[in-house]
Specification:
By secondary structure, this protein is an alpha/beta fold. The chain contains 7 helices and 19 strands. The strands form 5 sheets. Strands 2, 4, 5, 7, 8 and 9 form a 6-stranded mixed β-sheet that branches. It has a 6-stranded mixed β-sheet with strand order 15-14-13-16-17-18. Strands 1-3-6 form a 3-stranded antiparallel β-sheet, with no helix packed on it.
Length: 381
């Protein structure tokens, strides 16, 4: 914008000096009127912009999801409800990938007629997966010559989830069984596939398997009830992505997102039921993932925020829920936090992105941001 301002100011000064020279030479005395007009017009048209102060309305449109590596098409529309035009309008757009921390600033230039609208299209390159938050941070209208700025309060924003690409991986999952002489505990808040213990009863919905109908109770109550099976704690699985252990580069954060997504996709395709957990700033999110469709629904939520260095995810989890009562935990991170030793009584398998493996306390696998798809072709957990 400043370059355009200086160019416009230079053109105006050149014209002003030329008119002054002609007027002073006496060749055309009436040119003095033009000199006065040239002085008045910039200030006058700049002052007219006060009438636009609450008359401009902005709208930023962009798709809710986009493919990684492709350009994201977006559009800004400025609606002018005033009776004067916005001849030179500059719109500053800021885009931030909240997962990777990458930022970009764009400047759009348009002219908006009185009572009409102006549009400007732009693209954002989704180099890395993540959650792109785009907002109009500033709208500036110039005088008709284009060098006197006037700020207009005009805001709008848009959000796009750049979904991670997934790669093919073979996951060998080993979850310990409860010994026969041990009493099995069941998760009180998670359903599973152990039909010997009922998790809850609910009304029948079309598509439910007939074998889950509670025939005795259904006949008594005169409507069909479904038995949902319980989940033995020893057979439960948590996939936890801790983004807070250490600051990660955009490439590393992108690699972790694709690795978590691909491992979860492989588990879902194998029919494995698990809980998907992740850090979201200083909060912990956890959702049950029973199908591939549920995983796809959770992915955009998982990408909304990146690293927060105040407290690692293991400490946040324990503050919120206590120890993680799962038979097995698959832990994704950049670094192993000291608090991991107290995290769970179950088995923990660790996948580190460009990290340093610990001693033999845990099954640890290190993969690299540039070669993660090759490093994780075969994963034994």
């Amino acid at each position: 914008m400043r370059k355009r301002q200086f160019t416009a100011l230079g053109g105006w000064l050149l014209l002003f000096l030329l008119l002054c020279a002609v007027a002073v030479s006496g060749m055309a005395p009436q040119v003095w009127g033009g000199v006065v007009l040239l002085l008045v017009l910039p200030v006058g048209t700049w002052g007219m912009n006060f009438l636009l102060k609450e008359k401009l309305e902005a709208e930023l449109k962009m798709p809710s999801t986009a493919e990684k590596g492709k350009e994201v098409q977006a559009e800004v529309t400025i609606q002018n409800h005033a009776r004067i035009p916005a001849v030179h309008l500059f719109c500053t757009v800021q885009a931030e990938n909240r997962l990777t921390g990458e930022n970009s600033i764009l400047e759009l230039v348009m002219s908006v007629p009185a009572g009409g609208s102006g549009k400007s299209e732009f693209t954002i390159c989704g180099t890395h997966c993540g959650y792109i938050h785009t907002e109009i941070s500033k709208v500036t209208v110039m005088d008709w010559f284009g060098f006197l700025p006037f700020r207009i309060p005009c805001k709008s924003d848009g959000r796009t989830s750049i979904l991670p690409n997934t790669f093919s991986t073979e996951v060998s999952l080993q979850i310990p069984y409860c010994q026969q002489d041990e009493e099995e505990n069941y998760a009180p808040d998670r359903k599973g596939n152990d039909a010997s213990e009922i998790f809850q009863l609910r009304d029948y919905v079309p598509g439910d398997p007939v074998k889950q109908i509670h025939w005795k109770l259904s006949s008594k109550l005169n409507h069909i009830l479904i038995k949902e099976a319980s989940l033995p704690v020893s057979r439960s699985l948590l996939v936890f992505w801790d983004k807070n252990t250490e600051e990660a580069s955009p490439d590393e954060m992108d690699a972790m997102a694709e690795s978590v997504s691909s491992i979860c996709q492989a588990l879902s395709q194998d029919g494995v039921q698990y809980t998907l957990g992740w850090t979201d700033g200083q909060e912990i999110c956890q959702e049950e993932a029973f199908t591939l469709e549920e995983l796809l629904r959770l992915l955009p939520q998982m990408l909304k925020n990146g690293q927060n260095s105040v407290e690692d995810g293991v400490s946040l989890w324990m503050d919120a829920y206590g120890r993680a009562e799962y038979g097995k935990i698959i832990y994704f991170a950049k670094r192993i936090p000291e608090s991991l030793e107290e995290f769970s009584g179950g088995e923990i398998s660790i996948l580190l992105c460009d990290g340093i493996p610990a001693d033999n306390r845990w099954n640890t696998m290190v993969y690299h941001a540039q070669t993660f798809a090759e490093d994780l072709q075969m994963v034994v957990l």
